[in-house]
Amino acid sequence: VENKTKTETENKTKTKTENKTKNKTEKKTKNNTENKTEKKTKYKTKNKTENKTENKTENKENKTENKTENKTKYKTK
């Protein structure tokens, strides 16, 4: 009887430990995935916004440059 109890206790402990480890790993993986996704989305949005702003500014500069060029071009004609 003592031997049986010892084995049962060992098995319970083993199962408990395995489950804890499994749960920790699953939680870690889930959190890592969530964090990666959040980070990706955050940077995608940030980069899109930065690029948009950069492009708008560049376009404005180009328009101004073209206007000036055209004015000069037609004045000379």
From TrEMBL:
Record field: compositional bias (Basic and acidic residues): 1-40, 47-77
Region (Disordered): 1-77
The protein's name in its UniProt record: Uncharacterized protein
Native species: Reticulomyxa filosa
